[in-house]
Write a structure and sequence with these properties.
Elements (H helix, E strand, L loop, with lengths): L1 E3 L10 E3 L16 H4 L4 H25 L4 H10 L2 H15 L1 H25 L4 H7 L27 H24 L6 H24 L5 H19 L9 H24 L6 H9 L12 H19 L2 H5 L6 H19 L8 H38 L1
Antiparallel strand pairs: 1-2
Helix pairs in contact: 3-8, 4-5, 4-14, 4-15, 5-7, 5-9, 5-10, 5-12, 7-8, 7-9, 8-9, 10-12, 12-15, 14-15
């Protein structure tokens, strides 16, 4: 690992090598600062961002000092807001109860996270836990100390917040879907209190997620606010999209191929013009207080391949012979059996962690693991449950 003392984004000649990090063998090249890339005057850009991010660090210090007893709650909220829980909990639950909602959840989560990756590569957002050590905004004697936690050391750029964007997109989809379902059953009985209650719950969740990400020093306040806004925009766009419910396997394949190739192509293009998109990995390895808190599964490419695997697996599941042969049961017992079986099976499956000693193998296994999640939920579990119920009914006769 290269530890460089130069300014963010510029390759420094004064570097030292350290090899005790769990994430290795990823080359770092020269890069440009956001202001250089977008032709903003560097001094003006740096001054404005120093003020904004300085206020963000003050917010983190305030939360960590005055709400230290809520540390466990903040850590749990950050864990709960991870998109992994959408794929392993919300999707199997909703798909077996209302398939269209489950399908929309996957599309919102995957496309939202893909856009989040692209935005992060463009915006070059810093993170508080490393920025506070490198900025010239503070005099050395006045440099504030902020605590780090196991979920602090994210390895990608910070803006916009992926957790805030994902939570906003997923919960916005859930709220609008629930309201739509209820209004279709009782058009005249959706009262103001129900709408107010659901939207109050939505905003309560967003506030908790934003505060948790600021508390653990993973994000600045402006990054989580940007995440909430963009997440809601993605969800609203898919509220108006209908073709995803009848998309062919070819559509799933080409969409997955396009999203993957465009992200990789964009990465290579930026590298060709001198931008190193792995600059944040170096900072995470340098400033994280515990090397084991720097995880390969938080890198941008790990996120990309997980999401592409999930989308491709959804297409495989919806167009597999097992799914087409299985008639969806409206019986509550069958739906409950599918939900419980899916949740238990996916919980066991999630315990498998791909090895991280080789990046290529890790990415490949992450893609395959992610593709298996919707495939199992959509086709294998319903098929097995229906076969078991059919055998039980035959024995009863």
């Amino acid at each position: 690992m290269r530890l460089c003392s130069g300014s963010p984004g510029i390759k420094s000649s004064s570097c030292e090598t350290e090899s005790n990090s769990p994430v290795r063998n990823i080359s770092l090249t020269h890069r440009q600062t956001p202001s250089q890339l977008w032709f903003f005057p560097p001094e003006m850009f740096t001054s404005v961002m120093d003020v904004v991010q300085g206020l963000g660090v003050s917010s983190t210090r305030y939360l960590q000092t005055n709400y230290k007893d809520a540390q466990g709650l903040f850590l749990w909220v950050s864990w709960a807001a991870d998109l992994r829980n959408t794929f392993f909990i919300f999707f199997p639950l909703w798909f077996h109860l209302r398939p269209s909602v489950g399908v929309k959840l996957i599309w919102v989560a995957v496309i939202g996270d893909w856009l989040n990756l692209v935005f992060k590569w463009i915006l070059f957002g810093e993170r508080p836990y490393w920025w506070v050590h490198e900025t010239s905004h503070y005099a050395d004697s006045a440099r504030p100390h902020i605590e780090q936690y196991p979920m602090t050391c994210e390895t990608g750029p910070g803006s916009p917040s992926g957790h805030a964007m994902g939570a906003a997109g997923v919960y916005y989809t859930l709220v609008t879907s629930i309201l739509l379902i209820l209004s279709s059953k009782k058009p005249s009985n959706i009262n103001w209190y129900l709408r107010a209650g659901l939207w109050s719950l939505f905003w309560g969740v967003q506030v908790c997620v934003c505060l948790s990400r600021v508390f653990i020093a993973a994000h600045f306040p402006h990054q989580v606010i940007a995440g909430v806004i963009t997440g809601m925009m993605v969800a609203e766009a898919f509220d108006r999209t209908r073709w995803i419910y009848s998309a062919s396997m070819k559509s799933y394949f080409y969409t997955t191929l396009f999203l993957t190739s465009s992200a990789v192509g964009f990465y290579l293009l930026l590298r060709a013009v001198g931008v190193d998109l792995l600059w944040t990995l170096e900072k995470a390895q340098r400033w994280c207080v515990r090397p084991e808190w720097v995880h390969l599964d938080s890198t941008p490419f790990a996120s990309l391949l997980r999401n592409m695997g999930t989308l491709f697996g959804l297409g495989l599941g919806l167009h597999s012979p097992l799914y087409t042969e299985t008639k969806r049961s409206e019986r509550a017992s069958a739906q409950a059996a599918c939900v419980v079986s899916s949740l238990l099976l996916l919980h066991l499956f999630d315990s498998f962690k791909p090895p991280t000693h080789t990046a290529a193998l890790f990415y490949l296994l992450s893609f395959c693991k992610s593709a298996t999640v919707p495939l199992v939920t959509v086709s294998i579990v319903p098929y097995c449950v229906n076969r078991a119920l059919s055998l039980h009914n035959k024995k009863g006769v």
